[in-house]
Design goal:
This protein has a domain at 90-217: VirB8 protein (Nuclear Transport Factor 2, Chain: A, Roll), CATH 3.10.450.230. The chain contains five helices and five strands. It has helices spanning 19-33, 53-108, 116-125, 129-148, 240-251; strands at residues 111-112, 152-166, 169-181, 187-201, 204-212.
């Protein structure tokens, strides 16, 4: 009887299965697991294709600075316009104060005994407050004095100095020459200094108070004073004509 050779079993020394079989096995396992093969890697982006993070930050910074500069420019424009407006207002007030001061001083020292109402109206049109009240109260006495000596006066403003202007108040000094004529003969009155206090009333500058800075006995200003009423015409020393009468009486 012939005996069969023993079964050697699986050959452990056999090489790996062919590549095709291995790939098929892996694909089969992937399909069973429900997964898909990973996509191939994308090529690395070059420097030109990458987003420029630094450039984006610079854009934001320049935009913010542009906004700030625009806001500052608008603010400066508003401030400039306001300053320009204030400067023009100050210049306008100064010119108006100078104009009113000159006109008032000329009106105050210009009069004609034949028509004193015209002189009074010119003065009152440019005055207000305390001076206006005092002038109206004293006008009858002044008119009687001027008419008594048949006095007339023509004034010329030589210079005007405007002081500080603030809060609707201003001061000015005028220098005036006047020629007074009457029964006592012509008499020039040179370099009369007058200080005017002005206030703004309803948008217009008006004289509120008058002070004569001419320290002389023959003060030409026909304004009310706290002293005695002068006995001579404006521009004449007090009592001058009376003295002449005494001399005539003595000689007779």
């Amino acid at each position: 009887m012939t005996s069969l050779p023993d079964d050697p079993g699986p050959d452990t020394d056999a090489g790996p299965p062919p590549d095709g079989d291995a790939a098929g096995g892996r694909e089969l396992e992937a399909q069973r697991a429900g997964s898909r093969p990973a996509p191939p890697p994308e090529p690395d982006a070059g420097p030109a294709d990458r987003p420029a993070g630094g450039r984006s930050g610079w854009t934001i910074l320049t935009t913010a600075l542009a906004v700030v500069f625009a806001a500052v420019a608008v603010l400066l424009a508003v401030v400039t316009v306001r300053l320009q407006s204030d400067l023009e207002e100050v210049r306008g007030d100064r010119a108006e104060v100078e104009r009113v001061a000159g006109q008032f001083s000329e009106a105050l020292l210009t009069y004609d005994h034949r028509d004193l109402d015209v002189a009074r109206d010119r003065v009152l049109a440019l005055s207000t407050g305390r001076f206006r009240r005092e002038y109206e109260e004293a006008f009858e006495g002044l008119a009687a004095l001027v008419e008594g000596f048949e006095a007339s006066s023509t004034a010329t403003v030589k210079a005007i100095f405007v002081g500080d202007i603030s809060d609707g108040a201003a001061q000015a000094i005028t220098v005036v020459d006047a020629l007074v004529e009457g029964t006592a003969g012509p008499r020039p009155l040179l370099d009369s200094y007058i200080r005017l206090d002005l206030v703004k009333v309803d948008g217009a500058w008006r004289v509120d108070f008058v002070t004569s800075l001419t320290f002389a006995e023959d003060d030409p200003l026909p304004i009310p004073t706290d002293g005695d009423t002068p006995s001579g015409p404006p521009g004449e020393e007090p009592g001058g004509s009376g003295g002449a009468g005494d001399q005539e009486g003595g000689s007779g």
